[in-house]
Amino acid sequence: MRYTLKQIAVFDAIAECGSVSLAADKLALTQSATSMSLSQLEKVMGRPLFERQGKRMSLTHWGLWLRPRAKRLLQDARQIEAGFFAQQSLSGELSVCASQTPAEHLLPELVSRLDQTFPEVQVKVSVKSSHSVLEDVLSYRCDIGIIEGRCDDHRLRQEVWCNDHLTIVAGADHPYTQLPFVDFKQLEQARWVLRESGSGTRAVFESAIHPYLQQLDVWREYDFVPVLTRLVMNGNYLSCLPYLEVKPLIEKGVLAELNVPELMMNRTLSFIWRNDMNDYPLVDCVIKEGLDMMKGRSVLT
Fold first, then answer.
1. Mind listing the pLDDT tens digit for each residue in 148-194?
2. How far apart are CA 221 and CA 301, in angstroms?
3. Quick one: how far is CA 234 from the chain centroid?
4. What angle do CA 226, 228, 232 make, to 5 degrees?
5. H-helix or E-strand spanning residue 69
6. Where are the alpha helices (DSSP H) in the chain?
7. Please, what are the domains in the chain?
8. Cα–Cα dist 232/39, whole Å
9. Are 98 and 125 in contact (CB under 8 A)?
C-alpha cells in the first residue's frame, strides 16, 4: 500500500477546513509538513485531489470520490486502535446539521442519549434551514442531516424519524380568531409573516396552499420562529408554523390556532445522509438511537 494513514488524515482535514493552514492547525502539524503529505498522496494517486483557488482548496471530481472512503478508512483505524485499548464503544467525531424544529425539540435529547451510550463520540451540531442542511450533507460539510419534509435527491438516503404538522396561527386579538373556520378569501386578504424560502416549513406550507391560492400578502420573512411568533402575538398578522413550536403559546392563550378545514399540512422529520456513507458506524448509531428514542411516541400530540 503506497499511501499512509497520515496522508489520508491530511487529505480529510484539508477537505473539511478548506485550506492547508487550517488543516495544519487542526492536526498539530506544520504547514510545510501538511502540504508535503498532500503532495505525496496526489503523486501516489496520480490525480489532483483539490483545485487551488488562492488560499482556498476545493475538491476535484477525484477528491469527491475519495472523501467518503477516506472518512471510513480513518473511522476504521480509530476503531482498531480503540479495540486494542479495550474500548468497547464507538469513538470519533460526527457532525450533525439539523433544521430548526428538530434542532430545538428533538436534537438535545438525541445528543444526550448519544453521550450516554457512546461517550467516546464527539457530536458537533449546527442549525440551518432544510435547504442548507441538504447542501451541507452533499458537500461533505456534515455527516448526517435532519430535515423537515421530503428529500428527493437521488444522491441521498432518507430515514423518516417522526411526524409533525403545521398550523396557521394568529394573535389572540386577531378578528379571525372569533370565526368557527377561515376560508381562502380571508387568508388572501390577511398579512403574513413566514419562514424564509428554503426552509422545510415554508415548502410544506406553499405546497399545501398553492392549489387554492396563487398569491399571499407576505409582509416579512425571517429565519427564526421566535421572531415570527412575537410578530403574530403583537401585530395583525397570520403565520404558518410547526405545531411543536406554537403549542405552548396556544395553551397560554397568546396565540390562537385557526381552523382551515381544507389544509392538511402533515410532514415528516427525517435523517438524511449520502449514499456513499452506507455502513458508516457513527451514522448508523445516530439513526438507531433516534429511532429508539421515538418508539411509542408521536410529536403530533
1. 888 889 999 999 999 889 999 999 999 999 999 999 999 999 999 99
2. 27
3. 31
4. 115
5. helix 61-84
6. 5-17, 20-27, 31-45, 61-84, 100-105, 107-117, 130-138, 184-189, 200-209, 225-234, 243-252, 281-293
7. 1-88 (1.10.10.10), 163-266 (3.40.190.290)
8. 57
9. yes
